[in-house]
Specification:
single chain, Oxidized Rhodanese, domain 1, 5-stranded parallel sheet, 10 strands, globular
């Protein structure tokens, strides 16, 4: 009986050893596929890292848009509150070139040229407990910067129409004066625009901290060769009537209600508040320059900054749809006019500022 039990136990142990050996062999890595597997894992990690940088900026952009803060302040309101009323809650920053700032600027404003607005040392010195009013030439680059600084947690608005809304004199503005009438170019209502799905851009700066990442992508944009705005006449002649349509993609960021009443031919509609939602970003091409069409150009300039920080190539229709067509019932905004520009007072510097770097552009 003992021999039988011993023999049975021996057989059982042998069977267990066989199964164990088979199991270990099955778990051994395939040496031929090991390198390929490691490469695939590295690629996945790299893609996750790239996507996370894009997604961080996208989420920050969406958070900024959801706050739905005022974009601009009129020259008259700023003059009455900050200058005449001496309201200490305002902090004025002029982002024009140093020489233009020296020639004429609004009382109590400081100068940080547009090309330097990404620099951390400049941004860190800005007050977080005041309303920062950004002043540029026409309101476009200040609106861009307002979006960027707003994403960094600052309370920022742009001076409506920039110095062109403060004065009619080009020697004071440092650039061209505000347009006094609309072009009355045509708008369409038939929607024949095909929308295709595109891949999202990739951002791979190797930076995980949000503020540092935003500063880096803004630095690259401001150091690049670009134009922050495009004239209405250029859009009409080169794109709608010329042979350059395939190089551009038009996006109207007004509300759908106003878009449906009339829009520039070839443009699609993505309302500003919904611009950076993933499904809407996939409507935008990576290989064409995006022209953003807003009400007055300030909103489009904010949209442009959000898009270029995400890796798109974009520019704003200068002065918005109000310069394209003056029919407020259709466009949703009064046609452009220079009637309200009052030639408000400015000051001069009696010395040339040390930081006399030119702005990234003089057209904004």
């Amino acid at each position: 009986m003992r021999k039988c039990k011993f023999r049975s136990l021996t057989y059982l142990l042998l069977i267990m050893l066989v199964f164990l050996a088979v199991g270990c062999a099955a778990n051994l890595p395939d040496q031929n596929n090991e390198s390929e597997g490691n490469l695939q894992n590295e690629t996945i990690e790299d893609n996750d890292k790239t996507y996370s940088e894009f997604e961080k900026i996208r989420e920050k952009s969406d958070e900024f848009l959801k706050k739905n803060k005022p974009i601009s302040i009129s020259a008259q309101e700023l003059y009455e509150k900050a200058i005449l009323g001496n309201d200490p809650s305002y902090y004025l920053v002029d982002i024009r070139g140093g020489s233009h700032f020296a020639a004429a600027h609004i009382t109590s404003s400081i100068n940080i040229p547009y090309a330097d607005t990404w620099k951390q040392l400049k941004v860190e010195l800005l007050p977080k407990d005041k309303k920062i009013v950004l002043i540029c030439y026409s309101g476009h680059t200040s609106s861009q910067t307002a979006a960027f600084w707003g994403m960094l947690g600052l309370d920022v608005v742009a001076l409506e129409n920039g110095m062109a809304g403060w004065s009619t004199y080009e020697s004071i503005i440092g650039s061209t004066s505000l347009a006094c009438e609309t072009f009355d170019y045509p708008l369409v209502t038939e929607n024949n625009n095909e929308i295709m799905e595109n891949s999202l851009p990739t951002i791979n700066e190797g930076i995980t901290e949000e503020t540092s990442l935003l500063l880096k992508v803004s630095e690259k944009y401001l150091k690049g060769s670009y134009a922050p705005v495009i004239l209405a006449s250029e859009v009409k002649e080169k794109i709608l009537e010329g042979a350059e349509a395939n190089n551009y993609f038009l996006v109207d960021i007004r509300t759908n209600q106003h878009y449906q009443k009339g829009y520039i031919a070839q443009s699609i509609n993505i309302p500003l508040q919904q611009l950076v939602q993933v499904e809407n970003l996939k409507k935008l091409p990576n290989d064409r320059k995006i022209i953003v069409i807003g009400y007055d150009g300030h909103d489009a300039s904010q949209a442009v900054r959000l898009l270029v920080q995400l890796g798109y190539s974009a520019t704003a229709l200068k002065d918005g749809i109000r310069v394209w067509n003056g029919n407020e019932e259709i466009t949703g905004i009064q046609g452009i006019s220079c009637e309200n520009v009052k030639n408000l007072p400015t000051e001069q510097l009696n010395y040339q500022p040390k930081d006399n770097s030119a702005p990234a552009t003089c057209s904004g």
